[in-house]
Design a protein that fits this description.
The chain is an alpha/beta fold and 444 residues long. The chain has 19 helices and 14 strands. The protein has a 6-stranded parallel beta sheet, with helices on both faces. The chain has a 6-stranded parallel beta sheet with strand order 11-10-9-12-13-14. Strand 9 (309-313), helix 14 and strand 10 (342-346) form a beta-alpha-beta unit. Helix 5 runs parallel beside helix 6 (126-137) and helix 9 (195-226) packs across helix 12 (278-290). It is elongated and about 70 Å long. The structure holds uridine-5'-diphosphate-xylopyranose (UDX).
Length: 444
């Protein structure tokens, strides 16, 4: 099949490359000449394991090309996939201007029957608007479909090639057949729905996952008060197949390009229909507060932070990505600076992206984990990179000025800490805290 993919962000680039890997002829389009030049020169603008190898192979096989010429790309393809950004506006609503622009340009370009697929996460009803914009500019027949993307950053290639399910939202049997053929090599879990349900599935899925995270984070906060261990609680809960064990890792809250944006957008979508989505609002509030537990624990250990040096390990919103969008590290570091301390920060790959958004003379960006911990009054772990997990605690102890460790991702285990001098705070595991005494639960 011949496909064009409009937008070479995470979703567009990875989807385009994976469709080429399946044997389709794919043209990836972006308005950024710089991005397209990089991709044509074999440089991948995002960090994503396995992506470069697939790009190189499929370029060589002439199944994958990159261009800024949307018009030509659309003309030569049967399926056009829209994967442009839908960033949040200040009120949380999704900004659809890129989608609308793409729809207009597609309308101007089409020269015969096409299936127009939206992969970007868009509010319910957007695909229909895309359809009406295209028909304003074109007299050729086309069908629209919503095929939401569920890939995770850091495992985007694996996720795209091994999806749990494919949702095809379309009212057209012809489009459904084309898209079934396109996706059937990936999975037999394909569901055809109406367009609006498909658009909703994406928001509902992300909102539910975000809810699981905020739920377990609140359970962790309660565990700290009653002397229970959230990891054991999550293990016990997750064994119930109705609950499932995924997304029950307590920490400093979710970040990234999807959950914060999509939860806000769904609250807005509901609000516009006069529905107050109270549960999701609380999920967002809990998430926004969870990161400040790191600050509360720092204060508990150090008292006044004025003049202290705090080491930070991890700036990306999660491991295996250089993406810092909505990373909890921003607010944590800003709060530390506001309290008068200096920061020494390290991330294996996300430091440059982070510095581009938060450049402050009081933050020293370090080139190794050792440098960031060196002579610090406390070390905070904000991303669970493997590199940090495999660092021996005695090494950290020798680097730090005082052995104060706030593990925001629970990367260390009890056995490793036993007998060490660390003042150690993690999330929802008070028995491991060597700084405070866990309160005993009241037994009647
Ligand atoms: C997410 C969805 O998983 C994906 O389906 C969707 O298409 C885009 O949004 P992504 O943002 O790449 O993907 O990351 P994910 O691995 O889902 O993690 C999101 C955030 O939740 C991270 O900040 C992570 O640290 C946090 N998280 C995740 C937890 O705090 N606990 C968990 O148990 C799982």
């Amino acid at each position: 099949m011949k496909l064009s993919v409009i937008g070479t962000g995470y979703v567009g680039l990875v989807s385009g490359v994976c469709f080429a890997e399946l044997g389709n002829e794919v043209t990836c389009v972006d308005i950024s000449r710089e991005k397209i030049n990089l991709l044509n020169d074999g440089i991948v603008p995002i960090y994503e394991p396995g992506l470069k190898e697939l790009i190189d192979r499929n370029k060589e096989l002439n199944r994958l090309t990159f261009t800024t010429d949307l018009n030509e790309a659309v003309k030569q393809t049967d399926v056009v996939i829209i994967a442009v950004g839908t960033p949040s506006m200040p009120n949380g609503e999704a900004n659809l201007s890129y989608i609308q622009k793409a729809a207009r340009q597609i309308g101007e370009a089409i020269n015969g029957y096409k299936v127009i697929v939206t992969k970007s996460t868009v509010p319910v009803g957007t695909n229909e608007k895309v359809g009406s914009i295209i028909s304003q500019y074109s007299t050729y027949s086309f069908d629209i479909a919503s095929v939401p993307e569920f890939l995770r950053e850091g495992s985007a290639v694996i996720d795209t090639l091994n999806p749990d399910r494919i949702i095809i939202g379309t009212e057209s049997e012809r489009a459904a057949a084309v898209l079934w053929d396109l996706h059937s090599p990936l999975t037999d879990q394909i569901i055809i729905t109406d367009i609006r349900s498909s658009e909703m599935i994406k928001y509902a899925s992300n909102a539910f996952l975000a809810t699981k995270i905020s739920f377990i984070n609140e359970i962790a906060n309660i565990c700290e008060k009653v002397g229970a261990n959230v990891e054991k609680v999550a293990l016990g809960m997750g064994m119930d197949h109705r609950i499932g064990s995924a997304f029950l890792k307590a920490g400093i809250g979710y970040g990234g390009s999807c959950f914060p944006k999509d939860t806000q957008a769904l609250i807005q979508i509901a609000g516009q229909m006069d529905y107050d989505f109270k549960l999701l609002k609380s999920v967002v509030d809990v998430n926004n507060d969870q990161r400040f537990n790191v600050i509360r624990k720092l204060k508990e250990i150090l008292g006044d932070l004025e003049g202290c040096t705090i080491g930070i390990w991890g700036l990306a919103f999660k491991p295996e990505t250089d993406d810092v969008r909505d990373a909890p590290a921003f607010e944590i570091i800003s709060a530390i600076l506001e309290l008068g301390a200096n920061v020494k920060a390290y991330d294996p790959i996300a430091a440059d992206n982070f510095r581009n958004r938060l450049d402050d003379p009081r933050i020293q960006y370090c080139s190794s984990s050792m440098e960031a911990a060196h002579d610090a009054d406390a070390l905070c772990i904000l991303t669970e990179w493997e590199e940090f997990k495999s660092t021996p605690l005695p090494d950290i102890q020798t680097w730090l000025k005082s052995p104060n460790l706030i593990d925001g991702r629970n990367i260390f285990q009890e056995e490793e800490l036993n007998g060490t001098p660390f003042v150690y705070y993690s999330v929802g595991r008070p028995s491991m805290s060597q700084g405070t005494k866990a309160q005993s639960p009241i037994i009647a």
